[in-house]
Amino acid sequence: MRKIILSVIGILLIVLSFLFAKKLIADKHKPKPVKEKVVKTVFTDTVLNGTVQIIIPANGSLVAKRRIELYAEVQGVFKTGSKLFKPGQKYNQDENLIRIDASEHYASVQSSKSNLYNTIAAIMPDLRLDFPEVYQKWQDYLNSFDLSKTTPELPKMTSDKENYFITGRGIVSSYYNVKNLERRLSKYNIKAPFSGILTEALVTEGSLIRSGQKLGEFIDTSVYEMEVALSKSYASLLKVGEAVVLSNLDRTETYKGNVARVNGSIDAATQTITAYIDVKDDTLKEGMYLEARLNAKEEQDVIEIDRNLLLETNEIFIVRDSLLDVIPAKPVYFSDTKVVLKNIPNGTIILKKPVPGAFAGMLVKPFENSVKKADK
């Protein structure tokens, strides 16, 4: 029995060895599979150099072009007016912003004016006798004198004798004392120098105001300006009056402005120059953040492409005989998404969109061949 089992095992080993050898021979003569070449389809453009308008992006916050800080020059109680002194309150030009109780000072003014009138009236008999030629003009001055109105200017003195006589009676000094008091009386009423809106109110009606105290801030809402800092390389390109297009951050609204001023010096720390842009619009508010696009200059014989098409070595891919190659390029301006290039020959076929894993010598197939030229 043992011999039979051993014989069967031997026969099986011989058969398996034969089959394995036959398979090895068959695999040896089987041709190896040929790898299929992968040809990537790419989007291309044909270069046509032209003129590109360089647009400088800038941003900043709006501030009112005309603004004043309100300070008290006199002391007194804040009197209630026709409008509440609150932030957001609008006032027209020459309308009272703040009225301070001036009854005590007003009485002093009236007393000084009365003293001046009495002093002039006391010298009238002497003028009739000693200076009859000037008597009438001083009489006319007294007739026009009204305690309820601003003190009129003294008559012009025509001779040294008249001047000595009038000055010696203390009339000139009394006159200027009255004018000084009247000038101070006007400070009890603070009027709006222009039509605008109150943005800050630090006092309320009925409170005691002290001399030198800040009362609030008042701005003109008809025109705003935005301060932007630009590279010093554009210092010679910015022009006063240059039109500027501004937009909000969402770019849903656009506004028209113009360059109002350009600083004459360059910031030594940042090497930037400051420009100020005026903009008018009823929907604008102080503090709004806007983006501006300034037309700087025009570059000749250039093209504009996406920034991601320019390699770190300042080279770009071109298509030559269905193969990718690289050529040097000279970038002259970078924006957020675009780059302006020089030294790219006309007729050169370049990539329109980046190709993942691209390398020089890569086999490609152009999908579309359009003309790539500068925007005029």
UniProtKB/TrEMBL annotation:
Residues 68-216 form the Multidrug resistance protein MdtA-like barrel-sandwich hybrid domain. It comes from the Bacteria. InterPro entries: MdtA-like_BSH (IPR058625). This is HlyD family efflux transporter periplasmic adaptor subunit. The lineage of its organism: Bacteria, Pseudomonadati, Bacteroidota, Flavobacteriia, Flavobacteriales.
